[in-house]
Amino acid sequence: MPTYNKLVRDRIPEIIEKNGRTPIHTVLDDEGYKSELRTKLQEEMQEYLAAEEAKDSVEELADLLEVIFALGKVHGASEEELMVVRAKKAEERGGFDKRLYLERVEE
Question: Hey, where are the domains in the chain?
């Protein structure tokens, strides 16, 4: 019997049951949820960094977004609010489209 001890998507227990197995899970409290989301963020980031194909990279980026949106909710921000903050920062400071790599700043 495999042991996972990790945060999973909401429908994972249902999927496990459809495959004829019995998932054993608990519901996390607020602090546990926040902590496990942070762990999941690191896990998804590692999976993105390990992805070699563009398709796999996009899948992992989508997973990262899901975790980021969940963390936003933990901190009191909706997906829309996160996107507004992102757009404001992009307007004020720019994005990364120009691929600028700052080497140094001379005084």
Answer: 12-93
Q: What is the pLDDT of residues 13-48, one digit of tens each?
A: 999 999 999 999 999 999 999 999 999 999 999 999
Residue 5: closest CA among 45, 35, 47, 48: 35
33's tokens: 């949820």
Asked if 45 contacts 78 with a C-beta cutoff of 8 angstroms, the reply is no
Task: Write the pLDDT tens digit of every residue in 77-99.
Answer: 999 999 999 999 999 999 999 99
pTM to 2 decimals? 0.90
CA dist., res. 70 & res. 41, Å (int): 10
